[in-house]
Design a protein that fits this description.
The chain is of the alpha/beta class. It has eight helices and seven strands, in the order βαβααβααααβαβββ. The termini are far apart. The chain binds adenosine-5'-tetraphosphate.
Amino acid sequence: MARARVLSGVQPTGALHLGNWLGAIRNWVDLQESHDTFFCVVDLHAITVPHRPEQLADDTLTTAALYLACGIDPARSTVFVQSQVPAHCELAWLLNCVTPLNWLERMIQFKEKAVKQGDQVSVGLLDYPVLMAADILLYDADRVPVGEDQKQHLELARDIAQQRINARFASRDAAGEPVPILKVPEPLILPEGARVMSLTDGSSKMSKSDPHEVPGSACWIPRS
Ligand code: AQP
């Protein structure tokens, strides 16, 4: 019998921290036992915020190496870099054309990051959740293990698949039943470690791009 499929990823926006481990990667390691697992380094997401291209290339490889160091086994899981698979962008465009703008404007992460970028905020930052939906829907993923902060993006991916694609474009089988085009994925959010808070500001979540967290401190996963 085919195993349920899992897909997840991390942005190479800096050194991984304990929140990334407890909220996501720790679960990935266990899921390899029971699921068909796909783990990507989502470098196209990382260019929605200010970045240095040479550093991004380095961090992309470092993030993939950390996956392996954390226990992701390339013999059992498919490990890849998002930008190396053009179909992610191709599907994102198709989904863009059916996703209402106001669905994206209410995303909490967009609002939080847009405030930090001021008048430099890009269309890419707004569109981040549609690219994430494409990442997931492209692989017919059944489950997506993420931390609590990604729950709203997962719900958006489900709404795009169900309401904007399947409900509009599904064909009918011989019995007249709709044949869904896209699989609607389920979020997999474990209660423990779903939202690890910053060590310097207990009111906000631990974050790679938080300038107040210092790489090399207790919360960071060593890069070497
Ligand atoms: N503080 C956290 N607690 C639990 N889980 C977390 N995750 C992130 N922060 C926490 C989970 O880690 C996975 C990878 O996250 P991401 O890199 O794709 O983006 P993010 O959620 O925006 O993570 P960061 O660390 O805060 O990155 P930046 O600073 O670049 O935005 C996801 O499953 C996420 O839920």
